[in-house]
Amino acid sequence: MDDPLPIMSGFESQRGILRLIFGGTIPHWFFLTLDKLVPSNVPNFQMKRVLIERLLFAPLFHAWTLYVLARLEGKTHKQAVGNLYQVWAPIVRANWQWLTVPMLLNIVFVPSMLRSVVSSLIAFFWIIFIANKRRQAQARDRGENRQ
């Protein structure tokens, strides 16, 4: 499990494969399940759905995405987990800070069959933020290695 998996080179290719295979299916499944777990006849169902998405799904999905992306880059399990420890908490905090309102609007106003599409549009802009954080972490690592 500690062997690297050099599947693809290039961040764009890895992110593209990850989003193509899992980026739409997992959120789609989640939103369908969320509609069944918290039906519209439950009091405050919209707020409960938002809280479940923000406090449970978003952090777990980010952790999984960051780990799989690191493995696709050819990092070992230990390196991928180290990367996860380094960038996960700031990304989730920023996600809660900046994406709670768009996700609230998505859950409250968008029909359930289109939520994963709108979520993907929101994620497109979020990926830009994650890529920037990733570059900052890599630059910081390169700076520490030179000293």
Structure description:
With 147 residues, this protein is mainly alpha-helical. It has one domain. Helices cover 81% and strands 0% of the residues. The protein has helices at 11-23, 25-37, 45-72, 77-109, 115-146. The protein is elongated, with a radius of gyration of 17 Å. The protein starts with 10 loop residues before the first helix and ends with a helix. It is found in: Membrane.
What are the key terms here?
147 residues, 81% helix, 5 helices
Topology readout:
Layout lengths: L10 H13 L1 H13 L7 H28 L4 H33 L5 H32 L1
Shape by Cα distribution: elongated
- The percent range for helix content is over 70%
Instruction: Note the gap between the termini.
Output: 31 Å
Number of helices: 5
Number of strands: 0
Provide a compact summary of the structure.
This protein has helices at 11-23, 25-37, 45-72, 77-109, 115-146. By secondary structure, the chain is mostly helical.
